[in-house]
Amino acid sequence: MKQMATEISESQQPLTRLVEQRLIRKILKGDQAAARALIDYYKQRLFAFVWRSCPNHQDAEDICQEAFLKAFAALDSYDPQYRFSTWLFTIAYRLSLNHRRRSAEKQIDGDYAWPADDQESFETALAQTEEAEQLRKQVWSAVARLAKPQQAAIVLFYREHLPCEEIARVMNIPVSTVKSHLHRGRTRLRELLESVVAGDWSKLRILGSAAG
Amino acid sequence: MISCEQTRNLLDGYLNDDLSASMTAELDAHLLDCPACRHQLSLMEACGNVVRLDMNEPAVSADFTDRLMAILENQPTERASGLQLSRRMKLAVGLVGVAAAAALTFVAIMPGSNETNNTPLIAGRQVEGTSGPGLNDQFLQEFTGLSFPILFDAVDHLNSAWELGQLPLGPALVPPTSYEAQSIPPVQPDITESLPDLEDGAELM
User: Fold this and answer.
1) Which of these CATH numbers, 3.40.1280.10, 1.10.220.30, 1.10.10.10, 1.10.3720.10, describes A126-212?
2) What tens digit of pLDDT does each residue of A14-63 get?
3) Cross-chain Cβ contact A98/B200 below 8 Å
4) How many domains does chain B contain in total?
5) Residues B171, A122: Cα–Cα separation, whole Å
6) A203: Cβ contacts below 8 Å, ≥ 6 apart
7) Residue A70: closest CA among chain B residues belongs to which residue?
8) Cβ neighbours around A196 below 10 Å, total
9) Chain B environment of A142 (Cβ under 8 Å)
10) Which residue on chain B is closest to A160 by alpha carbon?
11) CATH no., domain A1-116
């Protein structure tokens, strides 16, 4: 049932701002095909972002679904000077925070653990060396140990290629705070991983190249 | 040449592409001569590469779009029935409504202060042939800064725009004459404004 996100994203062409705006205008006129196209384009990216802070498949999907519903319900207040993705991720980020808050209250949200269900897909899809795989897992494990705002800033910066100004909009914080989160996040990652790669350039090369 | 400490302080700016050309040149010069700083940079770049390229998240369910579309299709379309107002417009209509209610309450509870004119007001206009306490427009304006004709003009203005399907934003919501609501700043649609702090159970719209 599950496919790797890589396959999905590789099959997608970049959505230009012009096409995106056209889709939104059509959705506002009630065009369901346009709504479906926009959902299809963003669902995996949004899910990947949400899943990083909420590594439970069902919960992450519920958050994504709610984010889409809220975005469509308020579509006529969407400001076209910003990308739709910024708006969508903003909603999803807040929903994720709310979800985490509720989970914390229920005390069911334990420390991050690599989900067994996803381990299988991870291993089967990335036919790389075992060492590279271990390193990648260590990086993701380190990312998961970051404070949530740092983690969100890191993922939005690297995965979504958002500039600091856009990340600030998504997270509803000043740009300077985004830069602070990035700085602290990178520093923490360095601390967590330094012992792993401890001066070993070959490991770093594996880490850098095997990611692709 | 800059020191190792200065270099490490600049690495974030370097990775964020925030450094000036001259500062980037300084940093590059240091990195050429300093394996330790090169290692630091490589480590951070490698982490960035993993996050950027290693898409190991599980895929969203295959029927995600279908389920979502089913929900969307079954939702009552307020827009189609002409009932959906923008957040800004709801605020403006709400403010006018509150002001009108306050003014009506004020008229209802205040004893007639103008002994020479006890003719009651309906929609800001004097109505002949009725009796009871009442206030004139000038009195109302002095004490509330509002008058009924202006309130009704504002409501008419909003209703006309709504009926024409214009759903006006910002300046179009400001009534043609002066009243308190003009202190509302013009709308510059802002995605954060449309997203209130979502508390548990709170709705976006």
Assistant:
1) 1.10.10.10
2) 778 888 889 999 999 989 999 999 999 999 999 999 999 888 999 999 99
3) yes
4) 2
5) 54
6) A131, A135, A196, A197
7) B204
8) 15
9) 47
10) B52
11) 1.10.1740.10
